[in-house]
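Pipeline run #58 for the internal structure catalog. This entry was flagged by the ingest filter as a single-chain record with no existing model, so it goes straight to prediction. Upstream metadata was stripped on purpose; only the residue string is passed forward. Reviewer on rotation: M.T. Logging verbosity set to normal.
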Amino acid sequence: MNADFSRVLSLLRQEKGISQRKAAAALGISQALLSHYENGIREPGLAFVARACDYYHVSADYLLGRSLNQDGAVIEAGELADASEGREELKGSVMAKFQKKLIVNTASVLFDLLGQTNNKEAVSQAAAYLSGALYQMFRLLYRAAGGNEGYFATDSTGFDMDVMSADMTLARIQYARALADYPGEYPSMDSRSLTDAYPGLSQSMAQVFHSADGRVKQLEEISQSR
């Protein structure tokens, strides 16, 4: 059984808002055994996997980490909704179009959720952070294409010394503070609520998170192997 199983199993229970004892009773096993399953200490049989799927109303592919959608559907580039308002066609590879949809759709969900809070500082700092990342990617492409960097106000020395990353770090700090200081209520953000609120866009968001988690996991494995 892969490592995703234990993580997803625990997450589903937490999103359901129930204790291990209650979930274990409903699934016909002891709390200790469920704890072992959720922590990856022991692997369950197929009978338990089937019961867990029925209990949490998800597919086996989702529970086993084989699909990012709870119904087990596989995402294809042409099936993704596109939150961008522009009508221009993206020239180039299918991969570029696919990645564009993932990023645009995920950003759309983020700013829609932030907009519901009316937390203007959080919105501003989120925009600053993301625009800093886009600035860096675009400028490197601009440089590689032989563009005149006088087009940018920040000189090449400052850019090469990673001043934009410093700006992004500050934006991230201010964003975290704005969220921490927010006195109101946040919208529901468990996976089922997000899927219901953003039926097309949530697929992109799940893919973005999955890819980022995978890259971090690889870094951790490399670090541990040294």
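catalog note: The two ends are 26 Å apart (CA to CA).
catalog note: The chain is about 65% helix and 0% strand.
status: ready for reviewer M.T.
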